[in-house]
């Protein structure tokens, strides 16, 4: 049971403000300087925003769209909305107009809180199609001096209106906050929409609070943690760490200056608690490999030697195998010369625990960071479960699993091999979609995860792929595309990959190169190029990627179940997969159905006898304009 005096997030923020008023709750880097706000500041700023909304006629149950980068003001707006019994609806800051319009309309939002001019412009464009959107509040006024729309209001003006409103109704805020209950909807988080339009998951205060506390207790998360809040606020992962756990436990979150400064800000903050989806770990690894290639030959060989030794040690530990004495003796020297300096350079020297989730991480990437001494652990969860279902606990991390259930969570495997779960974090349903809710929540509170997996002998969960994606080749060989793609993406030269093989005679792949890594590689070899499309079709680049595919195939040959699923042919796409082109989601999950339709001609060519295919591509630019260009895409056989 939750204490009625602390069963919602606004009540807990008020408690934090009373018990730890001078402790820093949130920092933001602005103009190169870190600004700090205490829990007392957090509560007071959110209270004034809430009173300002009340002055505009805000009613219990109203929805507030929140869009922008991670900013204290936007987190305060989340709390302010909840304090009045409203429901915040965060939206991805890079959402295009169509995506934003869908969420604003589907959630029936009356209010919006935006970070800056860019987000205000998008909201003004969608407002004509969303007549229920009455007022737009913005934080950053730069570039908005000439805006005269009556629906616009700055955050400062809103808070001033709140102060005036409080004069006439001094008890209003406390009365509204006290009405909040644990089972009230705390937030609507829209899913990524890999198979169709996004669904709005309704999560209550109880869902999030209980799950956040259980996960923190199971892994020893305390009030002295520092976390970097840089992932989209619309993603449930950021909400559970930067809002729910931060408030429930009382630790400090840090908002970077911009997306481009995240790695530098990571070094300055030196977080103790870090979360990153596999794509971020892949990006960090790529940056390390690119810098390593720029080193002088003796230094490069030394680093490669020690990194190789550390990874062998870590693999042995994870497999519960003994580590040879000579390797154990060599490790302290490697820590002094390589692992420690590199971990410090990445900003991870103080990290006590680092999580990865969202999709499976390649085992090579996982081992690489653990070999450096970064305590990376996999967790498993989803929006509909308030994130946490399983955690890899310290001392019990096993390669290939996502850990064991946190307290309060039950797991079972259906006869079809799908993971089912029950948890206090199970959502209340999908907004305006009872049919999808009934399909997801089956009987007795059990929920379908959509993932295929199994429990090993020690109760650790192993996820093989999305249940609908695990199929077979024409000869009956098991085909798990995501597993193959993750192994291929361990290469710093591969940014994204899509494997095809269902009911086909063999596996093929569409590959995106990493422009930074491959561009750096090409420049060192004096290979001139003008664009991504030009670089992607260079014969030398095809040879480079062919070597990476062959490496993956050799690794796969050791797997008795999947050795028949080695990649036989591949091509390098002429463009990067892009959320704006609906090829991947905002969380970089592949939309396989859309890709199968859009690139049908390329896929057919991969299974024919052609060595190239001409394509005409439609692209969407950042300002919403579209264009086309032509390319001649090569197809490459992979030598076994």
How far apart the termini lie comes to 60 Å
Supply the CATH superfamily name of the largest domain: ANL, N-terminal domain
Give the beta-strand count: 29
The whole-angstrom Rg is: 25 Å
CATH architecture call of the largest domain: 3-Layer(aba) Sandwich
Overall body shape? globular
Offer a quick outline of the entry.
With 640 residues, the protein is an alpha/beta fold.
Features:
single chain, 640 residues, alpha/beta, Rossmann fold, Luciferase, domain 3, five-stranded parallel sheet, five-stranded mixed sheet, 21 helices, 22% strand
Can you describe this structure?
It is a single chain. This protein folds into 4 domains: about 200 residues, ANL, N-terminal domain (Rossmann fold), CATH 3.40.50.12780; about 100 residues, no CATH class; about 70 residues, Luciferase, domain 3, CATH 2.30.38.10; about 170 residues, 2-Layer Sandwich (GMP Synthetase, Chain A, domain 3), CATH 3.30.300.30. The chain has 21 helices and 29 strands. β27 and β28 form a beta hairpin. The longest helix is centred in the middle third of the chain and has 22 residues. The chain starts with 8 loop residues before the first helix and ends with a strand. The model has no long low-confidence stretch (mean pLDDT about 90).
